[in-house]
Amino acid sequence: MKGLFSLFACFLFAGCLVPHPSDGAVKCNHASGATCPDGYFCDAPSDSCWRNGHTPRPTDMSPRDMSVNDMPVAQDLSAMEDMSSPNRGDMAIAPPDLNPGPGVAQLTIVDLEGTVPGATQTPYSHILFVTQSLPESAGEAHQKDNRVPGLGGFPFGCTADYYNAVTSFPPSEVNAGEVSYTGYNRLLASADGRGSYPSPIPGSINCDFASLGGLGTYACIYAGGTDGGVIGDNPASVIFPPLPQTGGACPSGGSTPVGSTLCEQHPFGTGISITETLAGGGSYVAAINSALIAAKPVTILTINSTGTAISPSNPYDPFAGVKLDGTHDVTLTWNCSGDVSKPAGDGCSSLDFTTLTVESNSAESLPFGIAQCVVSSKSTTSPGMLTLPKDFISTTLGGGTTGNALLLVAQLHLNPKFSGNHEVVLSGGEGYFAFLPKQ
């Protein structure tokens, strides 16, 4: 694991202190009456000096490795990075807050489907991805932000941040009680880093607050009932892979045939109603327990990341050829009718939201970057289109050119509620994930 802090040595003499050091840059001087410079305090866990009013962050915020590696399933996902980090901060698949005041919370569950880069014409594997943001007050300013108020006051546009572990850190959550998600299809065969398991999967995803070295976060696990082996797993470390057909048919309960030999499993089937629950705690005084119908995924029509728009040649690898290097904007067009001959925005609703998220590096530890765009699926000005600016991509990459970046595109239904003075945006939908090499 990478450490959060770079500690700089003092070369003058024993016990010397830099007059204006960065947070965590200088060790506490226990041999001197002045343990830290004026305006600083000694943080005992790290034994380093921090500015008064600043909050130290943990040196390693990943509770354990939940990566999915070399699983004996129909599709090899060993190239995938781990998406099960509890300290991603706000993935902001739902719109974030633009206004000062009480924090606007989000609870989001997405059925993500994807394949490893270069996949052939095979069914998608699926992951149930959950994320929640429960801030006490309105979020800090983003490093890049071009959002403007849109439908219903939601901010439309993009943000980008790079958390470098020295001057910037992901936002901290507050303890607003347990968050749970239920109602998804349970009749699914599953796999994790230990092996493969038969249907069913547990009936609930439960997320509980944890304070890790001063950083508030939520960690999620599969819970509720008995199953073949994924109880206690982080949902993002569990996949639902393609299955072989038996006698020309797919298992009942949540899979559909693809070709003549394989079946694709679907955590969100037709008409699935997802219930998202917030128990309440602290300033989140009112419990939330509400159902919503998840939005279907959009159909990607064109992708432009090089200056030339292309249409995906392989529906099971729609992001093939996408480059993330900060030299070009990335522009997507889509429709919601599933017919690639129809124009962008066809069949979409202005009440649904399409989101794009790019994350650089693994969010298991700092530093990492994240860019997010949110638009109406069918806006009046640019229906079925969004653009992530190139300078936002550069900010997110943080100068790195090695490793992979995670790309998520999803469409969401929103169900805004209130908990005390906080607005809580419940959301659910379906989308795609891909791991793309940095250029």
What's this, in brief?
The chain has 439 residues and is an all-beta fold.
Overview of this protein structure:
The chain is mainly beta. The chain folds into 2 domains: about 20-55, no CATH class; about 105-435, no CATH class. The protein is built from 1 helix and 24 strands. The model is unreliable at about 1-20 and about 55-100 (pLDDT under 50).
Largest sheet: 9 strands, mixed
> What is the N-to-C order of secondary-structure elements (H for helix, E for strand)?
EEEEEEEEEEEEEEEEEEEEEEHEE
What is the rounded Rg? 22 Å
How far from one another are the termini?
24 Å
**General form:** globular
Mean pLDDT score: 76
Q: What proportion of the residues is helical, as a percent range? A: under 10%
Total of helices: 1
Number of domains: 2
Secondary-structure content class: mainly beta
